[in-house]
Every structure is written in structure tokens, then in C-alpha cells.
Amino acid sequence: MATEKLSISKAINASLRTALESDPKVLVMGEDVGKLGGVFRVTDGLQKDFGEDRVIDTPLAESGIVGTAIGLALRGYRPVVEIQFDGFVFPAYDQIVTQLAKMHARALGKIKLPVVIRIPYGGAIGAVEHHSESPESLFAHVAGLKVVSPANASDAYWMLQQAIESDDPVIYFEPKRRYHDRSEVDTDATPGPLHTARTVRAGTDLTLAAYGPMVKTCLEAAAAAEEEGRSLEVLDLRSISPIDFDAIQASVERTRRLVVVHEAPVFFGSGAEIAARITERCFYHLEAPVLRVGGYHAPYPPSRLEDEYLPGLDRVLDAVDRSLAY
């Protein structure tokens, strides 16, 4: 068993290294991913070990980066594209939603595009404008794309492996505020399916469902609630498209209450779809309406205000209180 404690950023680096070693058709592309090793040093050392033909420093042109990856995938390669910051992805949005997501259907299944687009996302790093977005629902809305986000180092390693092996395009959102969080990673393990949710803390009174950076916040909320005699279950969704509604339903049928938490704005966020589906599926089990906790329907603020914008422990616990008051 090859188990070691890694940060999320180091786990992603190790996963990319494993993929590059295992398959000569895997390429890593993006702005400053090579010599610099990425602005977060996630790709550090890969170009030195695998060469400039496998780990490619691209021009500062996201549309060109994704367009080139699509062409490479058509020729049998498996490109792993890094978008340097979440807010930089929008110049490539057209390529992603009109080409990458549609090509398989357009070709009646004859063409596959095994492209992974890695996007560091979310706030709480004190960055300037366009560096702290949470655009996951924009991509989850697009048929033809898979959208996932790990919350710990083990998932960061294995979910990226599975994304690279997938013949479908995968948007892989990396919670940049958690890059330095460390946990055990067993690189010899057999991972579960990519798009299944996982219960990370069992409970009986209410379910907190989250993904990516908010899983840790929900675990902290559950620990705080326990001191008041409340038992909260925490469900790590892991996948945003598709969503494991069966796992959410099973949890809600036990706890009878659900609060969905994400950094992205609540308005038209992924939590809205979850709330609607679970209300349909669990209407006669619910003892309170499904509540949502997230960012505000406003542009991401300057860094001095981001603590007020981002959902934190108090806002999660307030939603718990409101749900349990029914």
C-alpha cells in the first residue's frame, strides 16, 4: 500500500505525474504550467521530468488553449488543460460549450473528446477581481460536460485520474482555498465511481450537502452543532454534473431535513436544482423546506469584503437553526 499524507495541490501534481507516466498521449497545457510550475505550483517539476512536448507553456489565450486541446483530442491525445484562475475561463466558454460539449452528439457518438479542464476556483485567498469566481453551475447546465470538484487530497488524486481516463470532457474544479489542506492518499487504492456522493460524517437530525471548499466548512458546522446536542450528517457531493440524487435522497429520508451549501451565488446555483429535485423526491419525508446557503447575487467583492460575501460557519449554523425550528 502506497499511502502518504499530501496536500490537495501535491495530490493533483502526483495524479498528473501518474497519468503522464502511464499514457504517452496525456499532455498538460496551460499558462505558466511548465517552467514556473503554475501560479499555485500545482504542476511544479512536471515539465522538467517530461519535457516541453508533454507539459506545454501556452500563450495567454484561453480560447486558443481549449481549441488546441480539442484538436489534439481529435487526433487521439488526452489533453489536461489548466485555466490559471476561475475568472479567466470565459474567453474559452464558447469553445467549451459549443464545441467541446457538443462534438460527441454532433458526430452521433463517433467522435470522443477526452479533455480535462482544470480550474482553480472559489475565494478566500485575498485576490483581485476575476480571481475568485465560482462558475460551476454555468458548466453543469451544459449537456455533454461532466463537472466535478474534490474536497480532500485523496479525491483530488483519484478523481483527476478518473477524469483523465474518461472519454468525455470533464471540468475539474479545484478548491484553491484548500490547496494546502492535507490528508492521507492511498495511490494503490481502488477508487469508487467518479460521480457518487460520499457521507463524510453520519448524523440523524439534518443533512448538510456540499462539495469542494464548503465540505470542510460543513464538517466544522457539524462539530459545532454536536456541542449543542445536534447530530448533523455531512454529504460530500463530489460531482456537480451528474449529481448523485440517490445518495442525497437516502440521507434525507433518514434525517428529514436538508441544507445545501456552496460558495457560488444561491440564485440559480446548483443548490436550486438539488432543492427542487429533493422536494419532488422526498416531499412526504421532509419536515422542513430545503434551505440553501451560498454567495450573494452580486459580483465578487474586493478581498477586504470577501469574508462577508462567502458563506461561513455562522451562516451554515443559522440555516441549521431555521430548518430545525420547523
UniProtKB/TrEMBL annotation:
The keyword Oxidoreductase applies. Residues 6-181 form the Transketolase-like pyrimidine-binding domain. InterPro entries: THDP-binding, Transketo_C/PFOR_II, Transketolase-like_Pyr-bd, Transketolase_C. Its cofactor is thiamine diphosphate. CDD domains: TPP_PYR_E1-PDHc-beta_like (cd07036). Pfam families: Transket_pyr, Transketolase_C. The keyword Oxidoreductase applies. Keywords: Oxidoreductase, Thiamine pyrophosphate. It comes from the Bacteria. PANTHER family: PYRUVATE DEHYDROGENASE E1 COMPONENT BETA SUBUNIT, PYRUVATE DEHYDROGENASE E1 COMPONENT SUBUNIT BETA. This is Alpha-ketoacid dehydrogenase subunit beta.
